[in-house]
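Listing 4. Sequential folding, example run.
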Amino acid sequence: MRGINILYIDSNIFIFASTNKDKLGKNCRKIIKLINEHKITCATSFLVLDEVMWVLKKNIGRDSAIKITKAMLSMPIKWIDVDKSVMINTIDIFEKTKLDPRDSIHIGSMKKMGLSTIISEDNDFDKIKGIERLNILNCLEKNQ
């Protein structure tokens, strides 16, 4: 699973794809399409399912949140377990950076898999040494 070509995908891509009717949402839906077409190879933490369910439940309803997260599980994404090794990395990252705990878990998950690039609109990841953040537009430019 290790490799430069594998991107870590943040929860906000799925959230914007589901809730945003503007260009941002449209571009996130394009990224999801590219993943489903195996044109982008992604991994993400099971934590993303929790984040997506929580936000979607509040914004578009419980039934839609369930439907969307079930669809996410059927996507060709490598799902990363949040285990003890991830949490050891997470605590180290949380201690050394200004990231919040959830973002620290994402970086811990990336480190477990040897990943260094994240697709996210969250610029907090820009502060982390050794991590490259692709925003939605950069991701689309590199992968279309």
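-- end of first protein; second protein begins --
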Amino acid sequence: MFQLHFTPNLRRWLTAGERSRASTRASASSAVLEPIRLDRLGPDLSSPPADDHASSFVYQGSRPPMAAADWRALGYSETEATRLMKTCVPAATRVSVVVLSSDGVAPLAHYPFHSPTGFEWGFSGSGPADLARCILLNHLGVTPNARGKFYPPAPDELPIRYQAFKSEVIARLAPDEPWALSSQQISTWIEAHR
């Protein structure tokens, strides 16, 4: 059975032995996800993960509380944004997906096709489909072409089906918990599904 192992410490990278064991387990087609619990909601901006591979990334998703700026971006006035942030909806969160690399931290680029409103995870739907596709596009260094406001998939843009990645990985992430995927885990999954 193919397993993706999520580690709570983003600075811990797979050793050569772990990579070998992961490759051995990659022969089956289904994924078993071990959820992680991060001790913080967002990435540690002071020290991005270091690795001897220039192409190593960690994709991290979380739901930090909405700030006044988030409410303003949705069209609320400054007064309303402050009120909503403090009183009305204290549990409101926004979806945050970032890419951590040795160069720093950046938001994952969203190329909308299924979900113009953004990323999601924890179920099979439009937001998870866009997240799966955008993670694979970023991981493989592919920039899709726009058609109007959307970025429809080209037949040869990815070597594997992003809908399978959505079903086997993204849809199985805990919807209300932070998560992380390393570039090594994604590469292992791709190799098992070619």
